[in-house]
Amino acid sequence: PLGFQLAADLDLSPIKGPWLTLLWVVAIAWFIYIWVLHYQVGKPVYKPMSKVDLTFRYILIVVLFVTGVASIFAGGPLAAKWLGAKVALFALIISCGLGIRHYIAQVYAVFPDLRAGRASAETEAAITHALNWGSYVLYGLWTCMLIIGYLGAAKPF
User: Mapping DSSP to helix (H, G, I), strand (E, B) and coil, where does residue 117 land?
Assistant: First the structure.
């Protein structure tokens, strides 16, 4: 919401007035939701709550990416191509976050074997694979963040 607030203040976004307020309310509600979700791990309500969170993230990825790409190539809804690129890259950052979560889950999946002293070559390979690919996804996230910072400072196009 902060990025859309700044874009509205610069008259670069059509999301203004009550729509911007709604965006802030939804963002704050989602923030509270993910904190509540964090404290539900291991409880029966965790899986359905997590599914809602993931569904919201997938929808957000699509909406932000389409908005960004449309702004770059079709001239809207955002009034600046550099802003469209930032929004599309932010969708990729959310995707990277999901990718990192995926690889962390792969490591957690073999923890029972490690705790029980049943580590094997397969366990080690699974951990190595998850850490390597998770690192690549993390590098992608950092790269997107650097590019977003550059685009916001330089506004090159």
Answer: coil
